[in-house]
Amino acid sequence: MNRSADWTEQARTDLDHARKSVVMGDFDWACFASQQAAEKAVKALHLHQGTVAWGHSVLDLLEALPPPTAASDELKDAARALDKHYIPPRYPDVHPAGSSRRYYTEADARLAVAAAEKVVSWCGQNLPGKP
Fold it and tell me: Is the pLDDT at 11 greater than 80, yes or no?
């Protein structure tokens, strides 16, 4: 059973959550949800193509896609930016002092959402029957 549509739906839901988190001022969670959206979108593409996708690095997942699917350098840069948000937003002791929350800004969140939008959109364009 191919569950790529489920992963795509969850990716879009995570992206919506990221956008809402920006509005709510939860910039750390906006960044994490953006990373999750991109990760799940690329995993959906892997599932659709019949490849096994392990790990959480959006960049690694993109680079592991089989030909002819190849991500552009711009998309890989978006993935690199998102990968930086996988761990820090979730743990209060990542930084020497203060919770991770204090290290995230609205600008960080907006950049993360924009990066996730690129990845999710690109993955959707590479899935048949998806916009």
Answer: yes
What is the distance between the alpha carbons of residues 40 and 89, in angstroms, rounded to a whole number? Answer: 18
CB 32 within 8 A of CB 89: yes
Mean pLDDT of the chain: 95
Q: Where are the alpha helices (DSSP H) in 55-105?
A: 58-63, 73-83
| Contacts by residues 4-8 (CB-CB < 8 Å, ≥ 24 positions apart) | 4/44, 4/45, 4/47, 4/48, 4/127, 5/44, 6/44, 7/40, 7/41, 7/43, 7/44, 7/47, 8/40, 8/41, 8/44, 8/123, 8/124, 8/127, 8/130
The total number of residues written for the chain in this structure = 131
Alpha-carbon gap, residue 104 to 112, rounded angstroms = 11
Domains and CATH numbers, the chain: 4-125 (1.20.120.330)
Rounded CA-CA distance 113/59 in Å is 16
